[in-house]
Structure formats: C-alpha cells, structure tokens
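User: Hi! I have a protein structure encoded as tokens and I'd like to know what sequence might fold into it. I'm fairly new to this, so please keep things simple.
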C-alpha cells in the first residue's frame, strides 16, 4: 500500500512543480534526467542487496518523470487549444454544467463544458435575462469574446484553471439554446442540490439560520453575510462551511445511526453510494473529492481483508484529482484540505497520546468528557500545524481562538449537520414535521453563532500579518523550537517550555506593534483595501477613519480596517468620515458599524442615487452615533492634532461633490481629496488656503483626471500615497505618475507595499 503512496506523492510533486515554473523544453529534459537516474539506480550494484530501498527509489523517480510528461501532455491536449483562441471573438459550442449565477454588474454567468475542447470548461457571461433560465445539460451555440482564464489569479482567490476553467466567454448576444441532455440522470445531483437549496428557506424562516445551514450542508456561502464570514474566519471555524472530510464524516455518522454500525457490508455499500451522490451534488470541489476518496478506502478496506492506510488513501486521492486536472494543484482549497488531513494523520495521534498519558478522572462521565475534549483539541491543533503556513501566506491571518472555539463549535456543527440534513429530507415529505425537527438545528445554529460572537469579543483572537509583520518571524521561531523538541531526546517538560515561550513571544510581538502606533504625535495608515480607499488617523486617544470601501471582491475592507485597529489595540472610533458615497469608498462601513463603536459620522450633504447615505444614517441611529452633515469648514477632534474638513466645492458628478480632509500636526500636513477631478482640486486650492503638504493621498487612485500639475505645484507634496488594487481602469495611470514625479514626490502604492504607515514624532 505504501508503494502507491510513494508513486502518488512523487507524481503529484512533479505536477505541482509544473504549476510553479513556466512551461518550456526543460520539462522533457527533466523527465529524461529523472528516468536516466532511475536507470542508474537499477544498475547500481550497491543497491541490489537493498531491494526495498531500490524499489522505492525507482518508484519515486519514474513517477516524478511520468508526472512531468503527463502534466505537459494534458496541457497540450486540453488547455492549450482553448487558450490559443483567447483574445479574439470565436464561435463556441458548449453544454451547461451548473445553474446560472448573478454577477455583481447585474448580468449572468454560468459554467459550461466546451464541446470542441475535449471537456475543458469555460465561464460564459451574458446580460440577457434568458441566461438566468438555463438548466444543466442544455446545449449552447453562439459567439463570444474569449479571455484567457489563466490570467485571472490572485493569492486570495483560487484561480479558474484550478477548477478546469480555461476561458471566460463574454457574449454580446444570447447564445442559441437547445435542450441537449437536460433532464437526464447525469444531472440529477445538480437538480437535487437546487431542490435542497430551495427547501432550506421553507424549513427555516430565519435568513441567518437558513444561510448557515445552506453553507454547512451544501458548501454554498451565498446566504452568509460578509460580516459573519469574517467572524467565522477570525474564530477559526470557516472550514466548517467548506464541504470536506468533516462533513463526509457527519454524513456517515448519520448513516451509521440509521443503519446500525454492526451491519458493515450494508454500511459500506450505502456509504459509498451516498458519498458519490453527495460529492456530485456539492460540486466536486477538491476538498470533498479528497474526503470521499479517502472514505471509500476506509469503507472498502475491511471488506477486501486489508488494513486501511490513511497515508495511502490520502496519496491515492491526490493522484486521482491531479489525473483529472493537473492544474488543481494550484487550488488553495486543495492545498488546505490535504495539509489539514496530513496533520490529522501524522500529528493528531501524537498530541492526543501526550494528553492521554496524564492522569484521568475516575468518574465515567468526566473521563468521557475529557476524552472528547482531548480528541477535538488534538485534531484541531494537528490540522493547524500544517495549515497555518498556508493560511498565513494566502490570507495573512492567524486565528489564536481556533483550537478553543473548535472545542465547542465542532460538536455543534456535527449535530447541526445531521439534524439539518434530516429536516430537509423530511421537508420533501411533510413540511410541518420538518419544522419541528428544524427547531433542533435552529437552537444549535444560535448556540454556534453565540460562541463565534463571544470569540470575536476576545482581544487578539485573530492576528493579521499584513498589519503586524512581526508575526511572520514569530511563526518561524515557533516552528523552529517545536521542531527542535521533536529532534531532541524525550524530556517531559520540553513541549510545555516551548508552549510558554511561544505565548510569551507572541505577547511581545503584539505589544511591540501596538507601541509603534502610539509612539508618535500622529500616526496615519493607508489601509490596503485593494481598489478602494481607507485611511486611519490616530492621535492620543482619538482615532478617525476616512472612508472604508473596495471594488475588489477578494478584499474585505471592513476586515482590513478591523485587523489594523486590532494591531493598534483600538476598540472604538472617534469618528468615521466619508468623502463621497461610491461603493469603493463606503461598502465596508455597514459591517464596521456592526462590530465597532463609532461616536460621530461625517457625511457630505448631497443626493445619493445608490442609497448608501440613507443606509449609513439608519446604522448610525441604531448605534447611537451622531450624524453630522458637512456644509461648511469645520474641525474634527483628533488628539493633539487638527483635522479640518472642507465642504464640497464642485458640482454634478458625486466625485466632484465630495469632502476634503486636511490633517495637521505642527509643520506636518496630510491631504485627502477623495475622487475629485483636477478642475475641482484647483477650485479647492483657490477657495481655501491649502499649505504645502508632506503627504498627499492621491486623488481617484491615480486617475489621469486627478492630481493635475497646477494643483500639485500649489501643494508641493513630498510623498504621495496611492490606494489602488486590481482594476481595469489602468490606475495608477502613467500620466498621474509622471506629474507626481515632476514635483519631486516620493510615490508609495498599497498594491505594492501593502498598508502604508506614516508616523509624526513629537517635536
């Protein structure tokens, strides 16, 4: 069995290497070299006596060589023909794979399988409302602009290619639709998934609980608010809403309770069938495919008179996934899923064994409770050891609360999954009975949310590396000392000493970072929110936030600000000040109102067609926040500094009617102009006596229409900060950059430097 593990891991490592390095002739040279080394191993007389070692070396080398050739061959046959069409308009023929979804722009998108491309997938976009009525299995024929999906990538997002999608098809006109295979048994899982999704709100009238159950049962997080999603992430329980091995275990536990654990053959047969169906129903994500394949091995091994080997099962699952789509190696969910499983296999038994050596209570109930707590804590800790480096790299977050929150949340999630699943099934038969059973899930869901809310109130329950770079070095230190513990002779107290050192150094890292923000007279932070704007100003006990929004879906502006406030040890805001009502400056504020106490809200007095103004006023009134409309020049309290807000000086477009903020500390001045154009900037300079500024928050993310030469000459900025992220506007433009350089401004960008901090020391 371990031979299969050696083959699978070597093959997978080679495919992962292909994803990290650019394609080229080196692939064939590397494959040939590995095969040649394998031939040498076969002929070496020194290894002939050591048959087992030689066999493993041969398997590893030849499997790695095969992985390189397979990955390149797969690309040449499947993905390359699709990507060759990208950048132009072409006809396409495809079969709809899933149900259409709304886009942020009000159109529709749907995943399709291209007929002429050997099964490669694409995402088809169209604004026609007819697109929303498509069904899985229907055939499409039309013309579209093809965009290369491999160009759409980000650390925070799983790339399209990892899901087998190699092109984005933008249709000007609705493609022609024929029935195709719609209604066939092949697409029964998709229809059942939709039926489940529609039945859940009928069983639970509470939208929050319905969204929670939808995420837990189906992996569909569309019903979970951004605020709630951030809370789950910080508490370290987000994995409970990404269908994985835990959910398959919940499903098999439910099946075992219904069938009986003694009827092993029936349980194995029924479990395999149910898992296959569930795997297709929730969408064949890498994590659920991995979990189901591993469960198949565990279910079938006893029936085949073989011992189940978790490492071999894990390797086989990885091999099968990469055979179907080698690009899946780049999937963040796959990496996290396999890393957590590896931790559960390798470390969890050792951690659990360490705690079980301790003296156990004599009472059966207490002993059972301790055993449960130890197993849950060990499983969470074992998984975290392998996943923390990945979550830190991809998301920049480390959840301190995760091991402790999991002690309560995992049992609640287990009971909620089983009760919720039965309630939905019962809802198809008799809805009143489903409502009765649904009360169990309602109670468990409320308890779950309460635990998460309590965890969210604990100081430093989650730490972010983008706001505290000390954490990177702390993680390196912690991994080093625990590795040293593993490699050294067994001493009873070495792990306890290592744990104490980890806690003390963590407290030191947090304290040092917080002290940095409070050491000056003024600290200004341009928060990295992607293509948007958010600036924090701190002086003394006062903290003012100017704007909080982003147009990048993978950036949560409120979460970025909250992590920054956490690093500053700030729990409330003196004021929130808004420049104008566009989403990339305001869409993070609703979540912020729900999680931070805000004393005052400063708004521009202007019409708002987007409804943002009314929404913010309602949130402020609900929290008891004072709302101030700025119609004339006034000051905002900011410790030992002065913060002046200037009323709108332009007209027409909302960008031109925005507020301007000037922060001054002694001879230091910082100017925030929002998104106003050059003409409005000039009008501002004419109407109000602006000083020469040390720092300029560049208008409109570096647009060519803002930061005109005459205005820049008037304020003579020494440094310019551009808040920018992924965008299709070309921000920051070459024209704006050239003008800033012409006045001698040193340029800083949030998309390159992350959060940018300016500290003004006391004179």
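Assistant: Happy to help. Inverse folding works backwards from shape to sequence: for each of the 763 positions I chose a residue that suits the local structure. Here it is:
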């Amino acid at each position: 069995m371990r031979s299969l593990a050696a083959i699978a891991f070597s093959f997978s490592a080679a495919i992962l290497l292909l994803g990290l390095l650019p394609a080229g002739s080196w692939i064939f040279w590397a494959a040939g070299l590995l095969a040649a080394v394998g031939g040498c191993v076969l002929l070496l007389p020194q290894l002939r006596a050591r048959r087992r070692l030689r066999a493993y070396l041969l398997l590893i080398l030849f499997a790695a060589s095969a992985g390189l050739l397979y990955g390149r061959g797969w690309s040449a046959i499947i993905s390359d023909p699709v990507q060759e069409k990208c950048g132009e308009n072409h006809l396409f023929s495809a079969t709809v794979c899933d149900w259409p979804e709304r886009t942020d722009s009000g159109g529709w998108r749907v995943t399709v399988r291209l007929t002429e491309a050997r099964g490669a997938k694409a995402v088809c976009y169209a604004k026609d409302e007819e697109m929303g009525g498509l069904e899985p299995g229907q055939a499409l024929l039309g013309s579209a602009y093809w965009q290369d999906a491999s160009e759409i990538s980000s650390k925070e997002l799983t790339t399209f290619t990892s899901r087998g999608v190699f092109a984005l098809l933008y249709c000007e006109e609705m493609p022609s639709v024929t029935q195709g295979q719609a209604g066939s048994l092949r697409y029964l899982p998709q229809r059942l998934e939709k039926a489940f999704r529609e039945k859940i709100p009928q069983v639970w009238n509470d939208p929050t609980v319905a969204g929670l159950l939808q995420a837990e049962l189906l992996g569909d997080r569309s019903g979970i608010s951004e605020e709630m999603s951030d809370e789950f992430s910080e508490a370290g329980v987000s994995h409970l809403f990404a269908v994985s091995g835990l959910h398959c275990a919940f499903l098999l536990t439910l099946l075992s309770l219904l069938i009986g654990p003694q009827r092993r053959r029936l349980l194995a047969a029924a479990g395999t069938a149910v898992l296959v169906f569930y795997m297709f129903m929730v969408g064949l994500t890498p994590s659920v495919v991995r979990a189901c394949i591993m469960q198949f091995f565990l279910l079938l091994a006893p029936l085949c008179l073989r011992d189940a080997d978790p490492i071999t099962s894990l390797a086989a699952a990885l091999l099968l996934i990469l055979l179907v789509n080698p690009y899946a190696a780049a999937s963040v969910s796959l990496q996290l899923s396999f890393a957590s499983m590896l931790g559960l296999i390798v470390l969890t038994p050792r951690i659990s064994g360490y705690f079980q050596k301790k003296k156990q209570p004599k009472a059966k109930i207490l002993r059972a409770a301790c055993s449960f707590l130890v197993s849950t804590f060990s499983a969470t800790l074992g998984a975290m050891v392998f996943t923390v480096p990945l979550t830190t790299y991809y998301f920049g977050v480390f959840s301190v609360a995760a091991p402790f929150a999991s002690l309560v949340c995992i049992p609640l999630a287990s009971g909620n999954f089983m009760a919720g699943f039965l309630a939905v099934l019962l809802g198809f038969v008799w809805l009143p009975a489903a409502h009765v059973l649904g009360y169990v899930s309602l109670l468990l869901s409320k308890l779950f949310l309460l635990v998460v809310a309590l965890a969210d109130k604990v100081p430093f329950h989650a730490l972010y590396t983008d706001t505290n770079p000390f954490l990177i070095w702390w993680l390196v230190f912690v991994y080093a000392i625990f590795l040293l513990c593993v490699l050294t002779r067994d001493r009873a107290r070495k792990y306890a000493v290592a744990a104490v050192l980890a806690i003390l150094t963590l407290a030191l890292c947090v304290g040092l970072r917080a002290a940095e923000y409070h050491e000056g007279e003024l600290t200004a932070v341009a928060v990295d929110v992607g293509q948007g704007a958010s600036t924090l100003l701190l002086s003394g006990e006062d903290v003012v936030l100017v704007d909080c929004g982003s147009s990048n879906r993978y950036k949560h502006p409120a979460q970025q600000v909250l992590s920054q406030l956490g690093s500053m040890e700030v729990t409330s805001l003196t004021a929130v000040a808004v420049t104008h009502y566009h989403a990339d400056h305001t869409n993070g504020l609703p979540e912020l109102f729900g999680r931070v106490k805000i004393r005052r809200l400063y708004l521009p007095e202007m019409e708002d067609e987007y409804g943002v103004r009314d929404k913010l006023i309602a949130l402020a009134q609900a929290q008891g926040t004072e709302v101030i409309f700025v119609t004339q020049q006034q000051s905002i309290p900011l410790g030992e500094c002065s913060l002046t807000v200037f009323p709108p000086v332009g007209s027409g477009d909302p960008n031109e009617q925005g507020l301007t903020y000037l922060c001054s500390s002694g001879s230091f001045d910082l100017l925030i102009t929002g998104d106003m154009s050059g003409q409005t900037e000039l009008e501002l300079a004419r109407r109000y006596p602006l000083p020469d500024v040390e720092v300029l928050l560049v208008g409109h993310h570096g647009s060519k229409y803002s930061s005109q030469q005459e205005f820049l000459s008037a304020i003579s900025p020494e440094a310019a900060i551009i808040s920018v992220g992924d965008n299709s506007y070309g921000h920051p433009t070459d024209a704006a950059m050239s003008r800033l350089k012409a006045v001698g401004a040193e340029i800083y960008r949030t998309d390159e430097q992350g959060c940018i901090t300016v500290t003004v020391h006391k004179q």
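A useful reference point when you look it over: The chain is about 50% helix and 15% strand. Feel free to ask if any position seems puzzling.
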